[in-house]
Specification:
The protein has four helices and 17 strands. It is mainly beta. It folds into two domains: about 25-105; about 120-370, Phospholipase A1 (Outer membrane phospholipase (ompla), Chain C, Beta Barrel). A hairpin with a 2-residue loop joins β1 (about 50-55) and β2. The longest helix has 20 residues, at about 5-20. The chain is globular, with a radius of gyration of 22 Å.
């Protein structure tokens, strides 16, 4: 492993361990911050009335317009240290003795990571399988700057992504499991900052997914088409030979929220149809993510993630992606949180036209994720 890689990996591991140690005490401020994050992430609610005292969460009903109150109670009840969730009328509880609050008694221990049920029906909000923060090819909106090392065609580049996972229909079972089906799409252009912003390459991804969640476990199965296109300006330079690259992929992943802040995941994929036919079909993925319950100034939430992928066509050499930064809980665009992330990548290229090439880069970008 290169010295720079060892250093960055150590920083991420130490950051994760430090975050876990800092989050251990369950205080009212901890609960309030976590509750605010759940309300914003899952329900797109900014609750000004949110209060926590002695493990009891209190909300005013006026902040929950057009939201399923029972779902809110169930979601907040999963937070460590919560003993009760109370929803009162428009006046504070002390001024409204006749109000009949909606309550949920919580008997789970402090290590419970069970997840509340999300909205069901057509075009529901949220995702059963949360976005993979460090996966370079996860469909979402992003824009960033990258500095590549030791590559003749890549130097300084602007990398963008336009895409999303869109649930089309979600349903629940009598056992508390949830399922959804949806569509996914992603376009990822890369522009060369060293040559008048020439388009280097752009990849397209389009497909369907099946999501599942039960408590702290979540799964995702996808089938999708990928194609890659070389930029005209780069093709005219004559330094790269265009590859007619396209394939269909079937992949599955399983994620485990083993604490409210940490998630471990893994998956496997297979190329159903591939062009060129010399591509080997199998690949593996694993990763670890950290989303802090603590927030700086009640706004900035530290996040960090590590993603490893290994492909048969590249002799199973692992590719490492690291991302870390801050999530702005107060900034929401179409229900998605703004994240500013530093990133480091080393391994075989995720850009389709260069899949046989080993690359290394550092970068910084803005991302929109659930």
């Amino acid at each position: 492993m290169r010295p720079s890689l060892r250093c960055l990996a150590a920083v991420v591991v130490v950051s994760l361990a430090f975050g876990a140690a800092e989050a251990a005490p369950v205080t009212d401020d901890y609960i309030k911050g976590y509750a605010a994050a759940i309300l914003g992430w899952r329900f797109n609610v900014q609750a000004q009335s949110l209060q926590v005292s002695g493990g009891t969460i209190q909300l005013a009903r006026r902040d929950l317009a057009n939201v399923d109150e029972s779902a809110v109670v169930a979601a907040l009840s999963t937070i460590q240290g919560v003993s009760r969730v109370v929803i009162v009328g428009d006046r504070p509880a002390a001024d409204a003795p006749t109000a009949r609050p909606l309550e949920a008694s919580v008997t789970r221990d402090a290590t419970s990571t069970s997840s509340a049920l999300l909205d069901t029906g057509f075009l529901p909000g949220g995702l059963l399988f949360r976005p993979l923060l460090a996966d370079p090819r996860w469909p979402h909106f992003f824009l960033g700057y990258r500095k590549y090392f030791d590559d003749d065609d890549f130097g300084s580049a602007v990398a963008g992504g336009i895409g999303e996972n869109l649930p089309l229909y979600r349903w629940s079972t009598s056992t508390g499991q949830q399922w959804d089906i949806g569509a996914l799409a992603l376009v990822t252009p890369i522009f060369d900052r060293d040559h008048e912003d020439d388009l280097l390459t752009e990849d397209y991804l389009l497909g369907l997914f099946l999501g599942w969640r039960h408590g702290s476990l979540a799964g995702l199965a996808r089938v999708y088409h990928t194609s890659s296109h070389l930029g005209d300006e780069l093709a005219l330079r004559g330094t790269v030979t265009r590859v007619n690259l396209s394939y269909e992929t079937l992949d599955v992943r399983l994620g485990w929220d083993f604490t409210p802040e940490f998630r471990l995941y893994g998956g496997v994929g297979y190329l159903l149809r591939r062009d060129p036919s010399s591509l080997d079909p199998w690949w593996l993925q694993a990763g670890l993510e950290y989303r802090s319950a603590w927030r700086a100034w009640q706004i900035l939430r530290p996040v960090a993630a590590l993603d490893l992928q290994s492909r048969q066509t590249n002799d199973w050499q692992p590719a490492l992606s690291l991302r870390a930064g801050a999530q702005f809980d107060s900034v929401s665009v179409l229900g998605r949180n703004l994240q500013l992330l530093f990133e480091y990548y080393i391994g075989d290229s995720r850009e389709g036209q260069f899949y046989t090439r080993d690359i290394q880069y550092i970068g910084f970008g803005a991302h929109l994720n659930f």
